[in-house]
């Protein structure tokens, strides 16, 4: 390029020409207009998002209960001996108190489902960021970040989710997080954990840890061993394909992962972890015959009993929660 004096003078004249100035001014105005439109769109979008968020929060369920709604009704005889549990698919549950659930069981679920349970306020924002980062690296959406409180609300307030579209799912997720934060302001962690362990689906139609413990191991949850606690905690991610009866190998792999996590979180000692990891638990489980979930098979008694019980108790919940003795059976 020629940079002698005549060429420089000519270039200066071109730049200072009215035509060039008009073109430069028009470009500057167009840039400002575009920038203004972008800012306006961003502000409008933010306002719309904020309004939508407030609307979703305002429409969240009020006065919610985190305790499971339904449980088995037990018929007792004159000697106070359990004769027959009455339930359907939504009430195959035996509620127990916190002191009836061993620490190993509680810690096993915390280790695999919500390791920061005692640290967060209902929503684990660190866990959400970790899950997002993991999913971005792996190119999948396999990582979950819902806390135990959120899972409990999903099951007992939103009837386990099951939305038909992504918009409904996002709405439920926002309300779920809002309710989880509010719940932890008023309910102790131990109460939330107990409600969770009384609620969860643990495969083969078993709801809650007590029912599952009796089904898989033939004993109450309070008598479970450490390894048995890990077996139950391993089911929650997928109750169908991780239950130890139909998929023992998959459950055993999950059990070992839980034991490792419990060790990492200082819930169990190294010697216990090493010993239990050497055991293939599927062999022990197969020695226990699967117990059939009992559903009421006496429809005539039920038809004769229910109308009379309805006169005695005010609503169905009273019927579910009362112990029915032979006194009431005699009424039929």
TrEMBL record:
* Keywords tagged on the record: Antibiotic resistance, Carboxypeptidase, Cell membrane, Cell shape, Cell wall biogenesis/degradation, Glycosyltransferase, Hydrolase, Membrane, Multifunctional enzyme, Peptidoglycan synthesis, Protease, Signal-anchor, Transferase, Transmembrane, Transmembrane helix
A biological process (GO) annotation for this entry? Answer: regulation of cell shape
Q: Which GO terms describe its molecular function?
A: peptidoglycan glycosyltransferase activity; serine-type D-Ala-D-Ala carboxypeptidase activity
Q: Under which name does UniProt file this protein?
A: Penicillin-binding protein 1A
Pfam families linked:
Transgly (PF00912)
Query: According to the lineage, what is the superkingdom?
Result: Bacteria
> Species name for this entry?
Anaerobutyricum hallii
Q: How does it sit in the membrane?
A: Single-pass type II membrane protein
The top of its lineage is:
Bacteria, Bacillati, Bacillota, Clostridia, Lachnospirales
Enumerate the spans annotated as Glycosyl transferase family domain. 84-262
């Amino acid at each position: 390029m020629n940079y002698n004096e005549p060429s420089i003078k000519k270039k200066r004249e071109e730049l200072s020409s009215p035509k060039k100035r008009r073109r430069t001014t028009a470009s500057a105005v167009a840039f400002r207009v575009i920038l203004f439109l972008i800012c306006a769109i961003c502000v409008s979008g933010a306002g719309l998002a904020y309004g939508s968020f407030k609307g979703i929060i305002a429409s969240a369920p009020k006065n919610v209960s985190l305790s499971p709604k339904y449980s088995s009704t037990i018929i007792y005889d004159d000697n106070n001996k359990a004769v027959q549990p009455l339930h359907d698919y939504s009430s195959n549950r035996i509620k127990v108190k916190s002191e009836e659930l061993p620490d190993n069981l509680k810690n096993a679920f915390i280790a695999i489902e919500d390791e920061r349970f005692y640290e967060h306020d209902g929503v684990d924002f660190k866990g959400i960021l970790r899950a997002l980062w993991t999913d971005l690296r792996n190119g999948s959406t396999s990582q979950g970040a819902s806390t135990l409180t959120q899972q409990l609300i999903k099951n007992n307030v939103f009837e386990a989710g099951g939305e038909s579209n992504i918009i409904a799912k996002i709405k439920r997720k926002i309300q779920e997080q809002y309710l989880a934060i509010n719940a932890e302001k008023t309910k102790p962690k131990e109460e939330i954990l107990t409600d969770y362990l009384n609620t969860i689906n643990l495969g083969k139609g078993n709801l809650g840890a007590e029912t599952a413990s009796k089904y898989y191991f033939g004993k109450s949850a309070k008598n479970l061993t450490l390894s048995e606690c890990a077996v139950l905690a391993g089911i929650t991610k997928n109750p169908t394909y991780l239950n130890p009866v139909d998929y023992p190998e998959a459950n055993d792999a999950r059990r070992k992962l839980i034991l490792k996590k419990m060790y990492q979180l200082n819930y169990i000692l190294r010697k216990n972890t090493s010993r239990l990891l050497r055991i293939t638990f599927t062999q022990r489980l197969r020695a226990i015959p699967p117990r059939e979930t009992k559903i009421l098979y006496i429809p005539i008694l039920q038809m004769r009993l229910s109308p009379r019980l309805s006169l005695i108790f005010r609503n169905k919940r009273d019927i579910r929660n009362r112990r029915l003795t032979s006194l009431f059976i005699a009424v039929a």
